Structure formats: structure tokens, C-alpha cells
Write the C-alpha cells for this entry.
Amino acid sequence: MTLTQEHLDFEKFSRQLIGLTILKVEYSEIAYEPTNPKPYYPTQFANLDSVDFSIFFHTDNDKLVEIYWDSKFFQYGIGVKINEQSDFSGSIKWDVSSNGLWKKFIGTTITDIRITWETVTTTEEKTGKTENFVYPQDIKITFSNDQTIFISAAGFLDQGDKEVYGMLDNLTVTDNEELARQVKMIN
């Protein structure tokens, strides 16, 4: 797989997260029940959440980081924004800072970020023309407490599914590498 300058620029941009300290974490979901909202991000797995749109890191230095599913490189990849307007409106945000998954990261500093690039080939039905896309499938973020978060552009199709599926407009997130491999979030 060959990374273009655009891919390398995305990696360089994402590395701006290194050195930021996490103060608060929020999820952005569809407001399925606007009159009586409740979170839909929990899954059947402990410490593995499924998020419709975005994960927000409120950090020191007045930085707001948004990790979201994005179509910059391919329809279902991961994007990163810093202090930019979110593309998603009409959603509800949940403060998950005190959840079991996130509470150990509050007050810690991002020390590393790694992007996993995947290649997908598409074929146009009428012409048979194929095209390859290289896109960011998942992000591994390491923190100053030597703990890691894995975020993947993937989701469960049904509630009881044992594995996630890529190429969905959804994010899955966990701090458990073994679980991330078990449910196919990461290779």
C-alpha cells in the first residue's frame, strides 16, 4: 500500500493530539427519542461502546478534538478535527467521562497516536472500472498512564452480533485490545 502526501498530511495532523490532556469525553449520537433521551452507545460487551457519529475530547489548551466517521479518503473512514465545527447536527451528546471505559483517561496526556490504513477496491457496475482507496480504518491512542484506546470505523449490524462490520457510518471504541481483536475492530 502506498500512502500519498494527503495520507501523510492526515497522519501529521492527527499527531497534533500528542501532548493534549483529556479533561472530558463526550459521545455524539442520533437523538432517537428526543422527548425522553437515553444513551444507545452501550453494547453487550463491557468497555466497548458503539457511537453513531463522534467522540469528543475536551482537552487542556482549549482544544476540542472530534474523532468521527468521515468520507475524506473513502466513504467509511475515520476523521479528526481540532477546534472545528462538527458536520453532525440534530444529535445528542453524552458526557461519558465517568464511565468505566473513560474514567482512567481523564487527566492523562496523549503520548502516541497510530493510524491503521486499509485498502478497499470498488467496481463500477456499468463500466467494470475498478478503483482502489486507501483510508484510515482505525486509530490507536496511547496515554501517559500506559493505557490505550482503540477507535474503529465499524459497528454492529444487530444487537446480538459477536463481531463488528467495517464500512458503516459508526464508530466502535474500547480500551481492551484482546476484545478489539475478538470482535474484529482491529486486525
Remarks:
- The CA atoms of residues 27 and 81 lie 14 Å apart.
- The first helix runs from residue 5 to 14.
- The first strand starts at residue 22 and ends at 30.
- The chain has one domain: 5-31+40-182.
